Amino acid sequence: MTQKILISAGEASGDLHAANLVRELKKLDANIDVKAMGGDNLKAAGADVIIDCAELAVVGIVEVLINYRKIKRALDQLADIVRNEKPDLLILVDYQEFNMKLAQIAKANGVKVLFYIGPQVWAWRPKRVHKIRQRVDMMAVLFPFEVAFYEDADVPVKFVGNPLVDEVYANTDKRELLSKYDLSPDKKIVGLFPGSRRSEIKKILPIQLATAQYLQKSHPDLQFVLAVASTLKVEEVKLYCAEHQELEIKFVQDRPYNIMSTCDAIITASGTATLEIGLMEIPCAITYRISPISYAIFKRMISIENVGLVNIVAEKRIVNEFIQDDAKPEKIGQEIIRILDDEEYRDTMVHNLKQVKQKLGTEGGSKNVAELAFNMLNLNE
């Protein structure tokens, strides 16, 4: 009898991790039937993507409220599958608030739940761990320090290793990429990584573009490459650049790690990208901005000093963060200039990024979580 898995991945990074998980699962059993909310990566991996996550990737309380109907419609559709089709396993990938609600529905209907890249309760709202214990059968965590946190709350947990250790590498020679992106090998390159959500593009891209304009005045030979996430369209991102016609920017939609490999420095939105850039050992500055109301609420909830994942793993600030009102083009621009011009400062940052890479452990994260999911499927057979 064919085993059925339902996967819920709500944004670009979750789509990528879920796709690698599916590929590893198919090696264990090619007949596993996988339905998913996700994107192009999951489709390419062989999943039946029934909901495109591109429309749902928003961040911030106000932003979620604006998109509430779309998000609720997707949740209802997945909930119907849980109730009516009773998959053998529900795998939740990141997208925390949405997936916690889906987990509750699954548990009420006797469906086993594996949460992969789960809520960062150790960072904010730690009391949510009690809800996780009630709704989730197994947590598959990416950071070693998370294990003790969940064990202390009697939540079944397994450290599977961070899949980024396997995934983050350029698969094309830098010279070939420079030619492909029409970039000069003789001029320094600054990457703009504004995020994978439309709400991030609206809030963060204007800051990054204004920073690029600031940089161009002092360093006219700089080149700028803007990484367009797979969940977005190049043309829609270009619309946000209409006020910066004087900037010459290369818009690239490609494997993000290939784009990173061409850069001398990167201005990035906070999120998974900060860790990916760290693994590529590219010096960067972290920028983030959400609605003032969302920020005021989140600031009260958060229990850690840094928000950038690369800093959280390092357990100290190794990359500067420019968050909310601090996200000013002049400040960010001065940081990028220091990275480009101060060799000692740059070398120190690269050294610290190498240490983060060591902390994340060895390869095999996607394979490990696939084996965990496979064992959960067959536990009661």
Describe this protein's structure.
- It contains 18 helices and 13 strands.
- By secondary structure, it is α/β, with parallel strands linked by helices.
- It has two domains: 4-163 and 364-377, Rossmann fold; 174-359, Glycogen Phosphorylase B (Rossmann fold), CATH 3.40.50.2000.
- The strands form two sheets. Strands 3-2-1-4-5-6-7 form a seven-stranded parallel beta sheet, sandwiched between helices.
- α4 packs parallel to α5 and α10 crosses α16 (329-341).
- The termini are close together.
Helical fraction: 40-55%
**How many discrete structural domains?**
2
Gross morphology: globular
CATH class of the largest domain: Alpha Beta
Given helix and strand content, the structural type is alpha/beta
Which percent band covers the strand fraction?
15-25%
Give the overall pLDDT as a whole number: 89
Radius of gyration: 21 Å
Tell how many strands the DSSP assignment holds.
13
Q: Can you tell me the residue ranges where pLDDT is under 50 for at least 5 consecutive residues?
A: none
Largest sheet: 7 strands, parallel
Beginning-to-end CA distance, first to last residue: 11 Å
According to CATH, the fold-level topology of the largest domain is: Rossmann fold
CATH superfamily of the largest domain: Glycogen Phosphorylase B
Q: Largest sheet, order of strands side by side?
A: 3-2-1-4-5-6-7
Write the layout of secondary structure elements.
Elements: E1 4-9, H1 12-28, E2 33-38, H2 40-44, E3 48-52, H3 61-66, H4 68-85, E4 89-93, H5 96-108, E5 113-116, H6 129-135, E6 138-141, H7 145-152, E7 157-159, H8 164-167, H9 174-180, E8 189-193, H10 198-218, E9 223-227, H11 234-239, E10 249-252, H12 256-261, E11 265-269, H13 272-279, E12 284-288, H14 292-301, H15 309-314, E13 321-323, H16 329-341, H17 343-359, H18 365-377
Parallel strand pairs: 1-2, 1-4, 2-3, 4-5, 5-6, 6-7, 8-9, 8-11, 9-10, 11-12, 12-13
Helix pairs in contact: 1-18, 4-5, 5-6, 10-16
